[in-house]
Amino acid sequence: MADPLTLFTSIGLSEQKAKETLKNYALCSALKDAIAQAQRVLGVAGVDKATGTLLYTMASRLRDPKRLGFLTDHIAQHKICTELQLAAALEFVKSHPQDPINQKEFESLCGVGVVITPEQIEDKVEKVIKKHKDQLLQERYRFNMGLLMGEARGGLMWADGKTIKNEVDMQVLHLLGPKTEADLEKKPKAQKAKAPDGEVKVKEELTMNGELKIEGRSLMDQLRGAALNFHKPGENYKTEGYVVTPKTMDLLKQHLEFTGGQIRTRFPPEPNGILHIGHAKAINFNFGYAKANDGICFLRYDDTNPEKEEEKYFTAIKDMVEWLGYKPYEITHASDNFQRLYDLAEDLIRRGHAYVCHQRGEELKGHNLPPSPWRERPAEESLVLFDRMRRGLFAEGEATLRMKIVMEDGKMDPVAYRIKYTAHHRTGDAWCIYPTYDYTHCLCDSIENITHSLCTKEFQARRSSYFWLCNALDVYCPVQWEYGRLNLTYTVVSKRKIIKLVEEGTVRDWDDPRLFTLTALRRRGFPSEAINNFCAKVGVTVAQATMEPHMLESCVRDVLNDHAPRAMAVLEPLKVTITNLPEGIRNDVRVPDFPANEFMGSHVVPFTRTIFIEQSDFREVMEKGYKRLTLDQPVGLRHAGYVISVQKVIKDAQGRVVELDVHCCSSHEAAEKPKAFIHWVSEPQKCEIRLYERLFLHKNPEDLSEVPGGFLSDINPNSLQVINSALVDISVSKAKVFDKFQFERVGYFALDPDSTADKLVFNRTVTLKEDPGKM
């Protein structure tokens, strides 16, 4: 059998997921057994991705190892083919622990052998839509489509959810037609009742198992009080796994005297790169938990690797924290504590818990390594050698200080200090040895009297060493709590890979709007409020969350719809001359900033004899369903109160339409109401428009099973389109960098920092509505 990493990636796991699995001994062993048995059942050496995904889910969720073989057989024989069937199977074996299993009952309750045809799905959806037809026609796309999905699934328990959704979408589109502008207008929110303390009430209902379900909870609600079942300050010892020593209670008493029982958290980024969307969840969790519970949160730079740290990263991190709406109680640095950390390291050596080792880096890689030959070196000798390390008497890699502990992932004696002859941005050449994360993190938490050390799930393997080191030194020991990472598909956030994209010229820099760094999202026009709302929607989960970009974009639309004033812009201009208006005429047209609420302000744009419309808003040949301007079909001009009809089409030498002569009349005088109203500009300002699409073609560009050529081979050639000849109305001429607008009928845009007094540059933030192809 191949090595575990190769084996796990061969069944469809990403390299990152495979490495995480290797750290969990029980899961790793169960998955290897399941794959081996599936290969025996199938009689082949490999397992396809669909089967591999089910095997991984089964191995990670199964609580009774003796059922592993039973369930593996059913998956390998394709009797269990979907996540829905697997969930039912896991629930069955959980509720039937006694042998033997009733095979007939099991297969009946798990949908084994049940086949749902496309015709059955089409028929069921048709009946559901017919039942709700009148309400659908009345409410159109404001109707709760989830109701249709729920009723359709009710009669087709084992049907694929995506197939049902596609059928519902198709039949609804057939019934209602494409969305109109009225459909796209956001429905006004009803005023919610206020709770006695002024907070908005949330909807509460009981779920089937009697647990309280709260819909629409804000992030603060999710983090407040006992919502997370976290320990109270000073009650660290009540946390599962917390190690109590003879000095614990005295240390907790001193801690409480210092903090007064206040919650204290910290956000500890490494200043060697730009923060990305995953960090937004960490910022919201750390700062939000403190804020929701009247506590404080430190911004602490983990600046222990001088080779990769730059001042621009320190500044950018602080800017992004403040952009998301948080103000640190204090900005600190791990380097503030270099002397204290060194003193504690000497104490650790004296206590017999650390030693100086001369093994090279390559000798320390891998698992199940033999103990270092210097592990039992006398403390006095290690103290002398550690001092020599401090004074620069060893070459880099020639000596390290290691702690005597076996970590949860099997790693033995992690390094506490290593030698680096690199000047530090704050301490200069004062130090040539620098502490590692495993050594620094918990001790800085202790020094700052942190109550809740919140970190992502991959640090769970370090929790025991966190407690061990604090207790080995008899210092106050905070509690480490883990939460799930936030990941997005169709992107990469690795610092190394972003640097590669910049070096290859694929993107311009860390703030290229096609990336999902926070600086890139701000440049693209994403409001910080939308990012915080997205984090609240994802929720404070223990499980890792991998979300689709369209979910974030939906949050962006919700905010911009309420806060981005309207303007008119034409991306591909077509000149229009209104022949029945006199030369030199210039009228002012008042345009509401927010058409749904005209009390929120307006602006004035000129209307003259010459206007510009989108090329796509005119067609010489009438086509079925086309409602805009044609030779025989007039069209209305938004906000102007005019209807125009074509008199003459002017073409260039190549036969392309370059200008229209039209006649206009008041919309009140028009023979019949036009089928559509289009946007336009007059006396406009020329601008550059940048249209962005996903940077990568595949969901998981880092997954070699999905993209064998690597992420650099997966670049979307159409991820950026630059339009240099766009026109925008003069209402935006005084916009400031990052100001946001809705260009009517086009999309949401933000002013880019590349703008000058002579030329404005706008980035498309998101389209007006979600592209169903991106679902």
Automatic annotation (TrEMBL):
Record GO cellular component, one term: cytosol
Span of domain Glutamyl/glutaminyl-tRNA synthetase class Ib catalytic: 262-561
Q: Does the keyword Nucleotide-binding apply?
A: yes
Q: Where is the Glutaminyl-tRNA synthetase class Ib non-specific RNA-binding domain?
A: 5-161, 164-253
What is stated as this protein's family in its record?
Belongs to the class-I aminoacyl-tRNA synthetase family.
Subunit annotation: Monomer. Part of a multisubunit complex that groups tRNA ligases for Arg (RARS1), Asp (DARS1), Gln (QARS1), Ile (IARS1), Leu (LARS1), Lys (KARS1), Met (MARS1) the bifunctional ligase for Glu and Pro (EPRS1) and the auxiliary subunits AIMP1/p43, AIMP2/p38 and EEF1E1/p18. Interacts with RARS1. Part of a complex composed of RARS1, QARS1 and AIMP1.
Q: What does the record give as the function of this protein?
A: Glutamine--tRNA ligase. Plays a critical role in brain development.
Name by which UniProt lists this protein: Glutamine--tRNA ligase
Task: Give the source species.
Answer: Coregonus suidteri
Native organism taxonomy: Eukaryota, Metazoa, Chordata, Craniata, Vertebrata
